[in-house]
Transcriptional regulator (Paenibacillus crassostreae), 350 residues
Amino acid sequence: MSNPLFHLENIMDLEKWHKLQDSLALVTKMAIITVDYKGIPVTKHSYCQPFCQGVRKDSVLSSYCQKCDARGGLEAVRLDKPYIYKCHFNIIDIAVPIIIDNQYIGAVMAGQIKLRDADSDALEQIVSRPSNSETDHKFKALEEDYLSLPILSYEEVSTIADMLFHLCHYIVEEAIHKNATIELYKKTLSIDTDHPFAESMNSTDLTYRNIQAMQSELSSTLIDNQIKRFTSSEVRSSNPLLQPAFDYIYHHKNENITLTKLAKLCHISPSYFSRIFMKETGENFSVFTPRIKMEWAKQLLETTEQSINQISDDLGFCDAGYFIKTFKKFESLTPAVYRSIYREKHEMGT
């Protein structure tokens, strides 16, 4: 995951989140823990039940718990919604995925409860554990704690799962917006003061409603400051219908723009947009946009010290691997090799 903003520890105040997690665990009667996209805990367990504490202290039984956590998280990501399942002791657990901009950044794992009705019959036991005398003996020693596990209805469990899902997304998205805005605001200190957006930064009436627009404008401005060629002022379409599309492409270098969106901007159908765009540029839209982004990428590689990951993010690629693959497709070499060759030639004065 290339973008550091998409790491939970960089997004959330984990100390404050853990306090909220403790409160949620107390209210819901569920044990809760938060993990990152690798499955590594980023918080401590909130109210882990005595039975599960005892099981997880056992090296043999805890391995099955880890398998349940891993499988549950993967299923939640695949479904893009909370996944309710039974562990190897038929205890009810929930995996709540945190997915931002199609990137899985972590999960909230909750549960350690039993159902008061027969609804558990419809739930999958995600990992089965073969019974043997040793594990049966260990369970016997913890049986009193097992019988003391909280009991909820399936409806209550499902409601809690949905609540955690929406709460996590709200908190994480708000944190991303806040952090991104702060970082971009700091960078604007180096923006030329005669840029039209600089004036709006001095306004005291910035509200939450325009934060996202401000982020987009700031990102584009920062990239434009570094890319001296291929600016929007140099692109004039012979077909007036297409001008809004070209303006948008060159003003929003940091976005992954779709043909459908541009067609809507031009107030024409996607199929008609595709035909006249091909006539205007001599290229399909699917070829033109990545090609022009590779031209911008070359300029960033030549004139800045930005990492490959940062350039990938700045040009709207959600994955650095895909950016490298696209660059190599057009230039027949990787971005790192291109930068190295360019600098060697520059140093030699050629």
Notes: The two ends are 37 Å apart (CA to CA). Confidence is low (pLDDT under 50) at residues 191-212, 229-233.
